[in-house]
Prior knowledge:
A six-stranded parallel beta sheet has the order 1-6-5-2-3-4. It has a single domain (about 25-205), classed as Rossmann fold (3-Layer(aba) Sandwich), CATH 3.40.50. The longest helix has 19 residues, at about 185-205. The protein is about 40% helix and about 10% strand. The N and C termini lie far apart (about 40 Å). The protein has helices spanning about 5-15, 15-30, 50-55, 80-90, 110-120, 140-145, 160-170, 185-205; strands at about 40, 60, 95, 125, 150-155, 170-175. With about 230 residues, the protein is of the alpha/beta class.
Amino acid sequence: MSSNSWWRRAAGQSFNPGGAAAAAAAAAREPRLALPHLAAPDIGWVDWAALRRLGFRGVVFDKDNTLTAPYAPALWPPLVPALRRCRDAFPPGALAVFSNSIGLRQFDPDGSEANLLEEAIGGIHVIRHETKKPAGTAAEIEKYFGCSASHLVMVGDRHFTDILYGNRNGFLTILTEPLCPSEDPFIVKMVRRLEGYLVSHWYKKGLKPIKHPLLTETKNLVKDPSL
């Protein structure tokens, strides 16, 4: 990606009026929508086989700071074994990427960058879509998987995009820590600080994530992979 493309994409992602409106509405009316069902340092801590046994049929990943460094074209190397374990737990084709950068027609109109990422991450499908998270429906994702979003897992590193979008549309949501927060654009860093402040405040008030019908247990779904 050229430096001009990087800055255009970074600026475009930072300016997300639909996302800002959705986040403001959630904060005012239902802040629990920004709280994940599960949280983990990274995808390597998630017991994917256990989630499959609970009835989940697929996993949807954010890209930047969840699977890759921001705007990078390849998987973050330490996550290679973790992604392999996830693929082994689910049927072929049951993993996908849903990103506010690659695959979004605003920044990738012909899908060429999505094609490159699919090759780089072993054929995992990048869903092409029109609307930035957290706005929009799960229609494109449900069409790809052939099932309701309530049978899918949404994984990402942002409360006000990935988690809010996932909860609004019925996914099980998993928050991971950003892989390379130092490489975020300045505005994203500021928004992360705001997210952290608000989420901490909501947890201190006793708020809990919204319930998910398939999440009958949480024990041992997130665990240290070294143990």
